[in-house]
């Protein structure tokens, strides 16, 4: 958590609906350690603001004019690679979530979800973690499971190949914890956690923390982690 003299988490808010931006801004204002430094009403403007302000986190609507949210996520990752992108979505857009994941998004939130998830998500991504709204994760997994039993067995096999410590790290990663938070929970130095995370990504054959988090949900590890 940023506190005391530490600088606040700097956020870019991108949504074409002014009412949505106002609502999200009001929720973020409840946390004195989070500051909205810029807003954008379309995807191209969002990329430009990300390049200019270099925020810690960008909250990006998946559907925007001029340049849609999916294209904006990919462009933003190139223009401001240090900025973590949280995608704002609604039910029925699971296929867009999967594409945003491939574009480098660090997390997904429901526009109609619990306001506390917004604060948790911003904090998690700012700390280098990933964040999946549990309801988004469940819907995403349902959409991915063409053959539920076969896929579950495949996931169990992949996760089962991890060491016990790696499974602990994966569970906490899936719950949205950053490397530092995982280290404090497991009494490990952050460098050791980074090593575990790199090994997990390689052994699971996934590209990033969010894909690993999806597998953690699917394997049932997140509930056991006691996080979220």
TrEMBL record:
Pfam families: GerE, Response_reg. Keywords: DNA-binding, Phosphoprotein, Transcription, Transcription regulation. The keyword Repeat does not apply. It comes from the Bacteria. GO terms for molecular function: DNA binding. Residues 155-220 form the HTH luxR-type domain. Residues 10-126 form the Response regulatory domain. One of its GO terms (biological process) is regulation of DNA-templated transcription. This is DNA-binding response regulator, NarL/FixJ family, contains REC and HTH domains.
């Amino acid at each position: 958590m940023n506190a005391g003299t530490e600088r606040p988490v700097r956020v870019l808010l991108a949504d074409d609906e002014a009412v949505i931006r106002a609502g999200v801004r009001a929720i973020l204002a409840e946390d004195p350690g989070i500051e909205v430094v810029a807003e954008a009403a379309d995807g191209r403007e969002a990329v430009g603001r990300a390049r200019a302000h270099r925020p810690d986190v960008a909250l990006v609507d998946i559907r925007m004019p001029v340049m849609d949210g999916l294209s904006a996520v990919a462009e933003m990752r190139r223009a401001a690679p240090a900025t973590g992108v949280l995608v704002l979505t609604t039910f029925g857009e699971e296929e867009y979530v999967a594409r945003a994941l491939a574009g480098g998004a660090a997390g997904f939130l429901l526009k109609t979800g619990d306001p506390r998830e917004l604060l948790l998500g911003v904090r998690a991504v700012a700390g280098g973690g990933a964040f999946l709204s549990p309801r988004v994760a469940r819907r995403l997994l349902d959409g991915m499971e063409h053959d539920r039993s076969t896929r579950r067995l495949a996931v169990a096999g992949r996760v089962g190949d991890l060491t016990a410590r790696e499974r602990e790290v994966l569970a906490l990663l899936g719950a949205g914890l950053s490397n530092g938070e995982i280290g404090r929970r497991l009494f490990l130095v952050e460098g050791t956690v980074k090593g575990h995370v790199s090994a997990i990504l390689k052994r699971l054959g996934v590209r990033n923390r969010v894909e690993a988090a999806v597998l953690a949900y699917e394997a049932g590890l997140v509930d056991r982690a006691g996080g979220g």
